[in-house]
């Protein structure tokens, strides 16, 4: 199984590196859209969520009804997520400041998970990865990653039960990444592409 994974990595390495470079090169003015995107993705199709973000970008003003009309058919739990977006946008100035001031990526991720309505550790990690700041130190433990980690016997269940459970699985993922010689951020995109057929975000 691990030999197959290494082979798949060799075949996809250039595409993965290119995608991660695109995240790092993202203009700061685009960060806010990744911030919104990561509020929409839980239990939803990532590509449809990005379509919603593209529509939100075109709005002259942001209000709850307009957001609901856009995300209703593109994401689950659209009522809750519309509230999260409104609150998150109010909080953006604080988030932007923290992105500049906090150099410790783990502290930054944990702060986002605690202070952004609609974010947990997974969503905060996803946002930071998508703006090129994850540094191979934080994991996006979504169902695709958990399934692959279980298949590889890195973890023994595919459910995150609490924060400590998340940290434990994250450390196991980091250790596995080191052991197999594939950077954490690269493994994340490799696992996602295995499940979805493409390297997206």
If classified by CATH, what would the architecture of the largest domain be? Orthogonal Bundle
Q: What fraction of the residues are assigned to beta strands by DSSP? A: under 5%
Q: Which word captures the global form?
A: globular
> Which topology of the largest domain does CATH recognise?
Endonuclease III, domain 1
Q: End-to-end distance, in Å? A: 25 Å
Pick out the low-confidence regions: none
Q: Into how many domains do the coordinates divide?
A: 2
State the major sheet: none
Q: How many β strands by DSSP?
A: 0
Mean pLDDT: 93
CATH superfamily of the largest domain: Hypothetical protein, domain 2
Please report the first level of CATH classification, the CATH class of the largest domain: Mainly Alpha
Number of helices: 11
Q: What is the helix fraction of residues, given as a range? A: 55-70%
Going by helix content, strand content and strand pairing, the class is mainly alpha
Q: Please write the string of helix (H) and strand (E) elements.
A: HHHHHHHHHHH
CA radius of gyration: 17 Å
Any overview of this molecule?
It is a single chain. The protein starts with a helix and ends in a 5-residue tail after the last helix. The protein contains eleven helices and no strands. With 201 residues, it is mostly helical. The chain is globular, with a radius of gyration of 17 Å. It has two domains: 2-24 and 139-196, Helix-hairpin-Helix base-excision DNA repair enzymes (C-terminal) (Endonuclease Iii, domain 2, Orthogonal Bundle), CATH 1.10.1670; 28-130, Hypothetical protein, domain 2 (Endonuclease III, domain 1, Orthogonal Bundle), CATH 1.10.340. The longest helix has 23 residues, at 2-24. Helix 2 (31-40) crosses helix 3 (46-57) and helix 4 crosses helix 5 (78-90).
């Amino acid at each position: 199984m691990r030999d197959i994974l290494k082979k798949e990595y060799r075949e996809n390495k250039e595409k993965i590196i290119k995608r991660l470079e695109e995240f790092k090169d993202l203009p700061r003015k685009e960060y806010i859209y990744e911030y919104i995107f990561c509020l929409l993705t839980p239990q939803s199709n990532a590509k449809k969520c990005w379509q919603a973000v593209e529509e939100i970008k075109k709005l002259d003003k942001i209000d709850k009804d307009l957001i609901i009309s856009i995300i209703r058919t593109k994401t689950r739990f659209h009522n809750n997520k519309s509230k999260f977006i409104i609150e998150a946008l109010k909080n953006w100035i604080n988030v932007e400041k923290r992105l500049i001031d906090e150099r410790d990526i783990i502290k930054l991720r944990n702060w986002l998970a605690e202070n952004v309505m609609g974010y947990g550790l997974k969503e905060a990690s996803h946002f930071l990865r998508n703006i090129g700041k994850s540094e191979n130190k934080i994991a996006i433990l979504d169902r695709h990653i958990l399934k692959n980690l279980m298949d590889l016997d890195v973890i023994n269940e595919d459910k995150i039960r609490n924060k400590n459970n998340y940290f434990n699985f994250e450390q196991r993922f980091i250790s596995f990444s080191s052991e197999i010689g594939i950077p954490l951020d690269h493994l994340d995109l490799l696992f996602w592409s295995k499940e979805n057929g493409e390297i997206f975000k």
